[in-house]
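pasting Methyltransferase type 11 domain-containing protein for the record, 169 residues
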Amino acid sequence: MEGEAGQLPVEDTSLDKAVSVQVYEYLNDIAAAVAEAHRCLRTGGLLVVGDIHFDSLVWYSDDPARMDRMTKAWDKHFVGRDVPALLPPVLRDVGFTVESVTPITICDNELRPDGLANMMITLMKRFAESNKLVSDQEAKAWADEQRSLAAKGRFFFSLTHFVISGRKS
Ligand SMILES: C[S@@+](CC[C@H](N)C(=O)[O-])C[C@H]1O[C@@H](n2cnc3c(N)ncnc32)[C@H](O)[C@@H]1O
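structre below
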């Protein structure tokens, strides 16, 4: 079924578990989505939300000012860069007991073809270019630098995804 996070096509108290992975960072109203999950869960049901806190990004560049421009451009593709920090009080306000907040850090010192950093290089470059947030030359130079650093064994990337679980009391 497809539906809005703030208006799920699901009956009241019909779910044992609800899981959201990197969706809440795109929502204007996180509290409405949490309240909607609460409505759909049975008493004792579990809501599990995974989202990245983008302040946790550590990404090496010989040109930190350009890296800053690229990450600020990427910030414009979502609503919230800090969802994990906002979520625990929202869960409590809606009627969940926060059971755990678990950080999962993805830390690479090699540019893995199937890794998160490689995907982000492609997506960030495309987003910055197509929305004219930096020049095409700058976006290309930024992406090229990461591949060049990796070829020299100087690549470093770290980002933390948080898994937050709340139980409906
Ligand atoms: C980064 S993707 C994550 C997809 C998937 N959960 C995963 O981990 O691969 C973000 C997803 O959020 C969904 N999304 C964005 N705004 C939404 C909304 N208001 N209600 C429901 N889903 C939404 C998009 O359709 C997209 O599939």
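Residues 4-5, 21-23, 26-27 surround S-adenosylmethionine (CB under 6 Å).
The CA atoms of residues 66 and 141 lie 9 Å apart.
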